[in-house]
Amino acid sequence: MKHLAPEFVRAFACAAGRCPDSCCRAGWQIVVDDETLEKYESLTGPDGDRVRKAVISGQEPMLRQDENQVCVLLDPDGLCHAQKCFGHEALCRVCREYPRFHREFGNLTEHGISLSCPTAFSLAVSQKPAWDEWEDEAPIVPNDLDPERYLLLREGRALALDLLNEESRPLWERLALVWELAERLQSGLDGQKRAGPLACKRLRSPIGQKAALRKMQHASRFAARMPGWERLFRGNAGSLAALAARFAGLEILSPEWREGLEALRGANGTRCAPLQEESLRAEKVYARYLWCSLYKYWLDAVDDGRLLPRVRRSFDMTLLGRAMDQLVPRNRSWLQRISREIEHCEENLEALLN
Ligand code: SF4
Question: Distance from the CA of 97 to the center of ligand 1, in angstroms?
Fold first, then answer.
């Protein structure tokens, strides 16, 4: 089996008791797997009783939370009681894996870490993404991927991530090129056979890139033809209010997120600074966050052919984070909070696709 991961994945280590925003406080529904349940049956003493009582039995056994949506196994020192008393193996599969994720595509497994974890987020945005690749003897699982679609999407994603990684190019241009690429690939996925392979070829070449940027600038003169993300990057207050309303209509997990969105909506009519005025440091954070988001979700389009909605969702999350960082500032970026609110809730992910 071949494996692919961004380099920072290997460097991840849970901050445990020092975590500034523990996943045990996220309010997620944690399903306890059968193997762990079996282990819990054999735990002894009052600590074993406490661990067993923390599980709500049912068709899908879940970890119990207190009235503040905090896992009842979280001790005041910020550590998990089950892990502290019975070792790492006493964590259920979900807790053992988080924030790591893995996806299999034929003979390739991709690995990543979710940016909803503050430690993962800091790692991911503090360095320019690079690849880590290796092979092992793990058996290849048979799959029913459409090979043509898969290869096209892989080639397109490689180009999109390369473009985003061009840190000497203004972020506005990088976004415009990725958007143009996604639009053209979507035409290919929708049936215009030659559009997909041609898109990659064109947008890899400097001439094709120049033409695409010219086209985008021309479209920008006609607001109606301007993509929503671009209006937002130009600081358009109407687009920002619409985006904030969209996110406010989703399932909300934390009071902090609700208050943040309300504050943003309260700033109705306030423009955020255009992208051209963004600092280089901030540009890097937003580009790297978007890089991680596209790495994670781009290839999901292999199942249903919906690439552009996924790219739009990643753009929306990034741009909302940027707007909130400017208009509702706090001591760290809102991006990690957005991942936490959106990425572990299928309904929210799906709602943003539609
Ligand atoms: S959010 Fe990340 S760093 Fe914090 S406790 Fe969870 S896994 Fe560890």
Answer: 11
Report which DSSP code applies to 86: H
Same domain? 105 vs 181: no
Residue 13 CA to ligand 1 center (angstroms) comes to 8
Q: What does pTM read for this prediction?
A: 0.93
Nearest CA to ligand 1 atom 8: 14
Q: What distance in Å separates the CA atoms of residue 113 and residue 229, rounded to the nearest whole number?
A: 26
Domain with 73, as residue range(s), is: 1-144
Number of domains in the chain: 2
Q: Is 339 in the pocket of ligand 1 (CB under 6 A)?
A: no
pLDDT in tens, 31-42: 999 999 999 999
Residue nearest to atom 7 of ligand 1 (CA): 14
Q: Which of 144, 177, 203 is the last residue of a domain?
A: 144
pLDDT in tens, 289-325: 999 999 999 999 999 999 999 999 999 999 899 989 9
Please list, in sequence order, all residues whose beta carbon lies within 8 angstroms of the beta carbon of residue 165, skipping any fewer than 6 positions away: 128, 129, 287, 291
Ligand 1 close to Cβ of residue 22 (< 6 A)? yes
CB of residue 213 inside a 6 A radius of ligand 1 = no
CA distance 339 to 318: 10
